[in-house]
Amino acid sequence: MELNASLSLVRPEVILSFSALGLLLVAAWREQAGRLISILSVTALGAAAAFVINFMMNGTNSSAFDGLLVNDAFGNFSKILIFIAAAISLMIAPRFLENAGAMRAEYPVLILLSCVGMGVMVSATDLISLYIGLELQSLSAYVLASFVRSDGRSAEAGLKYFVLGALASGMLLFGASLVYGFAGSTSFAAIGTAMDTEVGLGLIFGIVFILSGLAFKISAAPFHMWTPDVYEGAPTPVTAFFASAPKVAAIALTIRIVLEAFGSQILVWQQIIIAVALMSIIIGAVGAIGQQNLKRLMAYSSINNVGFILIGLATGTEQGISAMLVYLVIYVAMTLGSFVCLMQLKDKDGGYREEFADISGLSKTRPALAAALAIFMFSLAGIPPLFGFWGKLVVFNAAVAAGLLPLAVIGITASVIGAFYYLKVVKVMYFDDAADVIVESDDKVLIWTGGVLAAANSPLGYFAIPALGIWTAYAARALF
Amino acid sequence: MNAADIPVLSIMLAIPVVAAAICLFVRAELARIIALSATLLNLVLGVVLWLYYDPAGAQWQFTESFNVFGPIGWRLGIDGISLTLIMLSVFLMPICIGASWTSIQKRVGEYMAAFLLMETLMIGVFAAQDLLLFYIFFEAGLIPMYLIIGIWGGQDRIYASYKFFLYTLLGSLVMLIAMLWMIQFAGTADIPTLLNTDFPAEAQKWLWFAFFASFAVKMPMWPVHTWLPDAHVQAPTAGSVILAGVLLKMGGYGFLRFSLPMFPEASADFIPLVFGLSMVAVVYTSLVALVQQDMKKLIAYSSVAHMAIVTVGLFTFNQQGIEGAIIVMLSHGLVSGALFLCVGVIYDRLHTREISRYGGLSVNMPKYALLFMLFTMASVGLPGTSGFVGEFLSLSGAYKVSTWATFIATTGIILGAGYMLYLYRRIAFGPQVNADAAAMSDVNGREMWLLAPIGVVVLWMGVYPETFLAPIRRDVATIVARIERAAPVGDSKLKLVDPTTARYRVVHGPEKNVAEGSH
């Protein structure tokens, strides 16, 4: 009975696991079933999301498998966001991968398995389940990065990601073993209780190693070095996926472990988070300036954005977590939209372009695409009236409310550096002479997703503010 | 008389946005007509606003309040100060569209859309009654202006557009943090409530500096003015008009709306800083203007000098000074806009802004020379023109606070006469040295329609300024009453207090001023 109760709490993950296994069998019998399996995978994600929404509506908040996992509003909110991001990554991929000759059935299956891992990550309340979820997600991601085997860059990206990812996992495990050794338990709640009284040096070492491992997974500086190479090398739909869903999962995981396990000793981790946040903002901004490749630029942009998101965590308040979730939602919309635009940069011969020189004067030849990309860039830069501004605003508002004024001032000032390279994209598209290499995209899916996401990032997005505020506050309350 | 029930301000904000969206999809000729009709419609609405505005009525009129954006309240409303600045914006917009009628030939639809968006954002800045809403309008103006300078600008347009964008962005981001702090302190983002919130004196200093960082750049004050000459020179004519005419006024408006009434003690403490920077600006930028070879650069530097007189006037803490500062803002908006249009007229013919390429234009372009003369004199501050009223009022207000600052600032008027008359002599008088300049035709009907209305208003404001002072007098008195507790002790020994200004005092009577004067 106990097992049944637990299983009913992880229904979304169960559905996704069985779908992935079943679809793998379909793939074994039908050679060219990539598209069909993609559609079925999106359906499976939809079904899983329906259960998550149901949990959210019922206000479920109970732990499963003897405290290994928890089904609460925070995890469910993150899961919805993850499933949506994964579904979009599935929908935009087929054309691109067919062109690259790599639309195989494994792509949707790997994404589904990755989603199972992410579902476990965001609901893990134990170091063991945390690690299992993280590895399931990461192993799928390593394969996805090198999905286009024929492309040397893709293979290189996969290898780099794997080697550095394994190193980060090692650090995380080492930290986890230290924490276990000094706290006497792997459960977040028990670690939290152990830390209530005093924190020894061993425990601090453990926390630092865990946070370093997690910083790698969310590509926060100074553990960001893999990001540009992997983002550039991986096929663009995969990069879009990396920049959205796994990032949400890893950040949600970080929030949970920091607050539930280490929450009682804010002074121990707050300075680490502040340092990581500021370094990410500055390195992400400065590193992007010299980039010629747009995917590398987006990699630095994601490092930069993670820095802003972590400002919310540094506050350690309910308002801060709620702000992070708002930022994450907007970030997913911005970043997926940017990648959708980049995927439409196709030349006459059907090859994909990703350099600055290729989008020169794009606004003359492809005005709609250029306008959409400009909206995403201004939104990423956080310039009002675009919706990206709201994300930055709530995060900084939380920092000001928590009394972290110096952090807020430095962070917001550094965002001017970031604005510089976002402006460069707009400048190249609007001010420079037309290079005229990009032809009209024939992929209706990309055009529509790009359009919808651009509308969401335009001032129209402001209408979502009240609903977003209510839901994120509800999700954040689950952690306090 | 049910004008109060109609959300006029929201309609004024919506018209340009809708027109901008249409302009993006139609061909050039149609885009021009749509843009012109939309801006004219807004001008009509602006006149309606002016007619129905009751100078003796509630402080905030035409108020609207909708809560659809969560913490960002869609709260609009205007007082007399906002009204005059909105009028300035809607008056200049059709002129800007007209000025771009023939000179802009590439990507007309996008150009018109950018200008129309600009209009919405300008009106929004002056009408917003919510701190965050104000910030959004204030900051969003960067995007269309960046595109206007970058796409349709001159040779170095890219450098200028970056400089404009990043400079002003850096200034306003610090202000955002201060705004967030204020909202948390007061528990509301409602500007009328915040206007009557007393912030702790220590916090005021930091908040004042954060706002100063933004408004001083926007204004622009020396030494953060360097983006302005670049932006002006590179922007297309209409871009310069809107930049000088309205965007610079946002800084002054910000000082008036936020810095002074919200942080009176800090404002009083920093008077020496503001006066010091303004004095440097008046003298330094006037001297720089004197040696310019480029017409637009000269006018741009003269803008910095005029804006310095605005800051002097604003920080006098008395009725005359602040009223004068507002009139200088309005006058400068009209006059410098007109001067940029004058430059545009001859630039369209000869495609150079170099002063030495012209000369003796009064021979072949008599009408042009006459109009140019009018605006030159208004810029110098000749009695009978708008420039005189504003400068006289702000300087006489400043005299009550600091005679030295007034003395230095007044040299700006003499230097102003120097560089403007020198410019006029080199352009309009003297021998016709260049054959192509001598062959230029006089202003045509369209250009006449652009310049003549501004000329009429400039003279109107100069001869009968009461029309423009009436709506702002009571609101200035409200601000003065609010900040009077921190008002500085002047170094001029006044014997008499002007009874006309004392009449509007709300809290303190004129006795206090006598006492102050007798120090």
Could you explain how this protein is built, in words?
The complex is a heterodimer of chains A (480) and B (519). Chain A is 76% helix and 1% strand. Chain A is mainly alpha-helical. In chain A, strand 1 (62-64) and strand 2 form a beta hairpin. Chain A starts with a helix and ends with a helix. The model of chain A has no long low-confidence stretch (mean pLDDT 89). By secondary structure, chain B is mainly alpha-helical. Chain B has helices spanning 8-23, 28-52, 80-99, 108-127, 131-140, 142-152, 157-186, 191-195, 201-218, 227-234, 237-262, 264-269, 271-290, 295-314, 319-350, 361-364, 366-380, 386-401, 403-428, 435-438, 445-463, 466-483, 499-502, 511-517; strands spanning 61-69, 72-78. The radius of gyration of chain B is 22 Å and the shape is globular.
- DSSP strand count of chain B: 2
Mean pLDDT of chain A: 89
Cα shape of chain B:
globular
Which range best describes the helical content of chain A: under 10%, 10-25%, 25-40%, 40-55%, 55-70% or over 70%?
over 70%
Beta percentage of chain B is under 5%
**3D shape of chain A:** globular
The N- and C-terminal alpha carbons of chain B lie at a distance of: 51 Å
Report the structural category of chain B. mainly alpha
Order of SSEs of chain A: HHHEEHHHHHHHHHHHHHHHHH
Strand order of the largest sheet of chain A: 1-2
DSSP E strands of chain A, number: 2
Q: How does the helix and strand content of chain A classify structurally?
A: mainly alpha
Q: Tell me the major beta sheet of chain B.
A: 2 strands, antiparallel
What's the number of helices of chain A?
20
Radius of gyration of chain B: 22 Å
pLDDT < 50 stretches of chain A: none
Poorly predicted spans of chain B: 506-519
Mean pLDDT of chain B: 86
